[in-house]
Amino acid sequence: MSAVTAEHAHDDHHDDHAHGPEKGWLRWIVTTNHKDIGTMYLLFALAMFFVGGAMAMIIRAELFEPGLQFVDPQFFNSMTTMHALVMVFGAVMPAFVGLANWMIPMMIGAPDMALPRMNNMSFWMLVAGILLIASTLFMEGGAPAGGWTLYPPLVLQTGKALPFAIFAVHLLGVSSIMGAINIIATILNMRAPAMTLMKMPLFVWTWLITGFLLIAIMPVFAGSVTMLLTDKFFHTSFFDAAGGGDPVLYQHIFWFFGHPEVYVMILPTFGVASTIIPVFARKPLFGYSSMVYATAAIAFLSFIVWAHHMFTVGLPIAGELYFMYATMLIAIPTGVKVFNWTATMWKGSMTFETPMLFSIAFVVLFTLGGFTGLMMSIAPVDFQYHDTYFIVAHFHYTLVPASVFILMAAGYYWMPKWTGHMYNEKIGQLHFWLSAISVNILFFPQHFLGLAGMPRRIPDYAIQFADWNMISSIGGFIFGASQLLFLWIVIDTIKGGTGEKVSDEVWEDAHKHGLEWTLPSPVPYHTFSTPPTVIPCDHD
Amino acid sequence: MKKIKQLFAGVTFASLGLQSAQADYTLNLMQGVTTVSHDIFDLHMLILWVCVFIGIAVFGTMFYSMYHHRKSKGHKAANFHENTTVEIIWTIIPTLILVAMAIPATKTMLELDNVQNSDMSIKVTGKQWYWDYEYLGTGVHFESHLDAVSEKVHRDGSDPTRVPHYLLNVDNPLVVPVGKKIRFVFTAADVIHSWWVPDLGWKKDANPGFINEAWTQVDKPGTYRGQCTELCGRDHGFMPIVVIAMEQADYDKWLQTTLAKQNEKPDLSDQNRQQLMTNGEAVYLKNCVACHQIDGKGINGTYPALSGSAKVTGGIDPLIGFLQAGTSRMPAFAKLKDNELAAVITYIRNAPELGNKVGDEIQPKAITPVYDDDE
């Protein structure tokens, strides 16, 4: 009944019955529906979050006390490598692609993604790539153990796994490029006529820019690992001094990919935060256009700062200074964003439901990660910080309580819309507080460890590092266990949640902030078959 | 300060219900023992305080707002969404702060980079998994491995808490004179390593096939410890660095004794079984254990086992030749003296912990050279 009213109210999907989902399990294999594919991306990312998390638990268990207790050092190195690869390429990136699939068409008033069949293909290629890289764990010589950056010559000492890992990277790259093309094509071609670029929600803007980043960098990464492949199997010497090559060349190419890559994981995070905070502050986003320009500025800068990952490799002094100055510049647009979020909250009428809690924790803790980033941009000081636990703390602050927290926030924020059921707010808040406290017990002491002189990627350490490692591990175990609450909430919400009927806008006055809240909850299989004419826009 | 630290640690540990294992930890970066390391420390503190103040301002505003501008207190939302003046101010102020930071940072960077006019040069070569030091122009050249106690403890899984300087101790430390500008040249034999002693204020990568430079001038005699900081494979965590800075006179004496010891002819006389096995174990722990493991079982699929290996327990001469020449996978151990070779061969053929029991003793005289290393 409600679907009929919705149809009537929006006058945009007359023939739902003719295009329902495929029956049975085949639906999920052959689907070209952006909502189905978005769901698959999100569930796959959640599964990989637990796989990568289990690897982190192994790492923290080994580091709980000095001495080698549980694993062999080689396997430990495989764990740090695989943890990073699985989390970056299996969890965080796919989760944001999943959100993009679900939300972008609904946010811009489009019926689906621009290239639905390719959408299906890019998801299944992602699954193939991750399975392939996971299979290297069982190969002779073990999974890659040279770090996720795959630096030669070390990575060339990998056993049978090397070509499989490289091919997996190729698959993941193709999947990402197709996903990015699809998102860009959708945003540029499928917007409702009234949805001008400067009316788009920031999540759409950040994904548009991220899409261009992905198209620019994934081929570079594919190229660098292909050079590894030919160095190993076809007697080239790109990275071997004995044949006229240079191992540092790899690092330049890798970080030309790698630095924009970290912004691939953080720009959509900014977008979600800019979407959620105004709703719970009951105020328009402060500085919409400066948010757009700051995002573009960060994306541009990300291409010209790569060698700040390489201050100690022996760059010429001009290079050290240039990359130091360029890197420091990133603080300016990033600062603008943080100030804008703060100003959005200022004089609002705030409530603190779980999505808002996670978003506020994101602003605070991401800023902490930003501060340590600024510290490390000072090249001479980076000669101390580099490759210690200080940087481990830094990038985990920008990834876990930033990207991952915002993914959680997005889950809580949109789940009622997706499922039509309300999640359990009490358990949600419990999940938040456990996560927010334990993530700091986990990562904050790592600053101390790094400053005190503990290198990263070591399975065993000197006695003076024992105390903070133990505390960090305890934080890690609590954080890991807390995430099971999220799993419970996802399952519970899908099955019916609190049983209370959620309204179309779910959150108070949310329809003023985004098109998705004008649709029924749960969202019908097809939406916006005809484009909406009224665009909510709270910033003109 | 110390009191505050103890209190802090006490509270943290008590709240987690833990017993502090070691009170001797630090929270902040060390100041180090060189002028440059002090400059770096000052820069670190400066940027840290800048961040703390910005943090207090931003988070303060945010938390004030969260407390006062909440719906439950009946606060009505304002509707502003831009303010050009404010936006310009918060773009310009950070820019000025950054420019102010860049000036001292550039000065220190230039200082770090200036390797001119050094008094002496030391070549540092990173190898899997130890350091090789060559005092250029003096003939002193030696390897620096993880010390035997740490080596054994981390491999057999016994309790490391009582080992002095666990994993931060070496057999042959790098000795330098105080008050001299020392230039280091870095390279590597196999993969990339990175040489870091926090007290000197910097780390530098050792890249295979290339040379990097750095310098230091230590003002205070003392022992300074560090580690490899570039992931270099399985035993990356087990190749520490120890630098001992001493007065010039002591350094000169050290240089002479080291050179004399280095040029000593090895004692090739017969040894009893006990001596052979003890010496052999020391050689094994330093050179073989990283791949073939403490129990001689190797790593399945990567490093072959010595236990029950026909190559190890078979004929002596092929085994000697194999050790001296190496293979594409195994490095040549031509660097081992005849007495060391004899001892380690006896050890690997007979050590119960490796599971071999041939029952023979190989004497230094039995070692026949495959090729001559006496150039």
Description:
The complex is a heterodimer of chains A (540) and B (375). Chain A is mainly α and 540 residues long. Chain A has a single domain (37-518), classed as Cytochrome C Oxidase, Chain A (Up-down Bundle). Chain A is built from 16 helices and no strands. Chain A has helices spanning 2-10, 26-30, 34-62, 73-108, 116-135, 161-189, 202-233, 247-281, 288-302, 317-329, 331-345, 354-377, 379-385, 389-419, 425-452, 466-495. In chain A, helix 8 (247-281) runs parallel beside helix 11. The model of chain A is unreliable at 1-17 (pLDDT under 50). Chain B starts with a helix and ends in a 25-residue tail after the last helix. Chain B folds into 3 domains: 25-113, Helix Hairpins; 120-263, Immunoglobulin-like; 273-366, Cytochrome c-like domain (Cytochrome Bc1 Complex, Chain D, domain 2), CATH 1.10.760. With 375 residues, chain B is α+β, with helices and mostly antiparallel strands. The longest helix of chain B is centred in the first third of the chain and has 34 residues, at 35-68. Chain B contains 10 helices and 10 strands. Chains A and B meet through helix 4, helix 8, helix 9, helix 10 and helix 11 of A and helix 1, helix 2, helix 3, helix 4 and strand 7 of B.
Q: What does the overall shape of chain A look like?
A: globular
Largest interface pair: A-B, 102 and 106 residues
Q: How confident overall, as mean pLDDT of chain A?
A: 93
What is the arithmetic mean of pLDDT of chain B? 88
CATH topology of chain A: Cytochrome C Oxidase, Chain A
Give the ordered list of helices and strands of chain A.
HHHHHHHHHHHHHHHH
Number of DSSP E strands of chain B: 10
Mind telling me the CATH superfamily name of chain A?
Answer: Cytochrome c oxidase-like, subunit I domain
User: Can you list the strand order of the major beta sheet of chain B?
Assistant: 3-2-1-5-8
Helical proportion of chain A?
55-70%
Structural class by helix and strand composition of chain B: alpha+beta
Radius of gyration of chain A: 23 Å
Termini separation of chain A? 37 Å
Main sheet record of chain B? 5 strands, mixed
Distance from N terminus to C terminus of chain B (CA atoms, Å) equals 58 Å
**How many domains, in number, for the residues of chain B?**
3
